[in-house]
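Exercise 7.
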Amino acid sequence: MACFRKGPEWIAAAFFGTIIVCISAGAESARGEDMAVSGTKSVRRVALVGASVGGAWDFPGLPARAGVSGYELEYVARYRFDKSEEIAALLAREERRPDAVIIKECAAFFPGDTEKHRNLVRRWVVECRAAGVAPVLATVVPVTRTYPLRMFVLELLHGRLRFPKDTQRAILAYNDWIREYAGTEGLPLLDLEAAVRSSDANRHLKESYARKDGLHLNAKAYRELDRIAVPALERIPYPR
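Solution. The predicted structure, written as tokens, is:
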């Protein structure tokens, strides 16, 4: 015949036993939810929209070169400042839509229409946010101090008379604005200029990082971009 314990001791044991069961069930449920979230966000998709400097970087190959996992990177090319069509296409994807879009411009587009450029950047940020995609701004890689002369000689060899003016000045003005705008809006910044410039005082591209035109980058410079890119990816506030 079964014997049932009665009294305060039995009530206390039953009460604490119930609490333990509830806590265990809650913990299991929380672990399951965490695993589900982790499973759906195990890979972060990031698209870099840029031009020739971005293309030669081989951005999709960055995780393999850096020995990191958890990222699926892609590069989308547009050889003019206005990248509205490319960004819109990325945001409209039903499948494999990026979690973040890095907006990068090239030195070849400077100088240009300053106010138009700034308004485009502002619009792209608004569109990315509305689509639930994290916008990331990038500074422009500067040119070398000898860039105007280099380009003059190269153009002359092709029978063209062209001497670029104010390229570096326009790039630095844009970069200063990008940093200020990113700070005001709380946006992550990929500071390419800081990685390849000669110094804080001399903001030209290092001569040792440049190809013969003084604008495009060599392999040594791209290793510097690799070095700053992974920490930048880790700082992006990806959507949940």
